[in-house]
Amino acid sequence: MPRVAKPLSDIHVRKLSFAVTAAGNPKAALHPVGGVAGLRLQVSPPNASNPKGARSWIYKITIGSKRKEIDLGSYPGVSLKDARELARLKYESIKSGLDPVAEQRAKKAALVAEQAQHITFAEYSKRFINKQAKEYKSPEQVRRLTHQLTEYVNPHIGHLFIKDINREHIVQFLRETSDTFNNEYRSHLCSDGIHHARSSLLDLPQGVLTERHSLIGDGL
């Protein structure tokens, strides 16, 4: 375990500031606060997005053969006392053979995946449109895709959560709307619209729909 810095009091911690380069430019500074080896308060200077600057706890420790930094939260939301306790818990966890950095990443990935399942298809279609807008060459393509999804797809499944959409929903939607598209358009726009609808419906997060090929193979 590395050498522990002299323990600072709450008063000293509140007075810690960001650094300034030789050229007079402000930059973030890491201040050892003592109590637990490797525990530091990072003080960042004000900027456009954060006029008051930022203060956060960083715990530096070697895990395996690599030196890593663990984010323990922002100050004063996480007090000096709590930051020291969190750092001690991380140290004990690492000492027992665990990697809290890897655990933190895994939990974040699981949370993102879980949140992705709890959005409606209407919300998801907005993300899909934004994604396609970056790839399309003209605003007209974006407008047409937006119209097709909002007017034809969302009225059928827009209210459903992504996690609840299954093959039966897609089959029913495509069967119900294929005739509508053909009767109204009978043009290239018709087939193009169905293609976009299929693309959006079948571009769902992994695990929601797994039968893309069978749907297309059924001629829907």
Write a brief structural summary:
The chain has helices at residues 10-15, 80-95, 100-117, 121-133, 139-157, 167-184, 188-202, 212-217; strands at 19-20, 26-27, 29-32, 39-44, 54-63, 66-74. By secondary structure, it is of the alpha+beta class. The longest helix has 19 residues, at 139-157.
What does this molecule look like?
- This protein is of the alpha+beta class and about 220 residues long.
- It folds into 2 domains: about 10-100, Double Stranded RNA Binding Domain, CATH 3.30.160.390; about 120-215, DNA polymerase, domain 1 (Orthogonal Bundle), CATH 1.10.150.
- About 50% of the residues lie in helices and about 15% in strands.
- It is built from 8 helices and 6 strands.
- The protein has a 4-stranded antiparallel sheet, covered by helices on one side. The protein has a two-stranded antiparallel sheet with strand order 1-2.
- The longest helix is centred in the C-terminal third of the chain and has 19 residues, at about 140-155.
- The radius of gyration is 27 Å and the shape is elongated.
The shape is: elongated
What's the helix count?
Answer: 8
User: What is the CA-based Rg, rounded?
Assistant: 27 Å
State the distance separating the first and last CA atoms: 64 Å
Total beta strands:
6
Q: What share of the residues lie within helices?
A: 40-55%
Content-based structural category: alpha+beta
Mean pLDDT: 78
**Going across the major beta sheet, what is the strand order?**
3-4-5-6
CATH architecture annotation of the largest domain: Orthogonal Bundle
CATH C-level class of the largest domain is Mainly Alpha
Main sheet specs: 4 strands, antiparallel
Low-confidence stretches: 183-220
What portion of residues belong to β-strands? 15-25%
Task: Tell me the count of domains.
Answer: 2
What is the H/E order? HEEEEEEHHHHHHH
CATH topology of the largest domain: DNA polymerase, domain 1
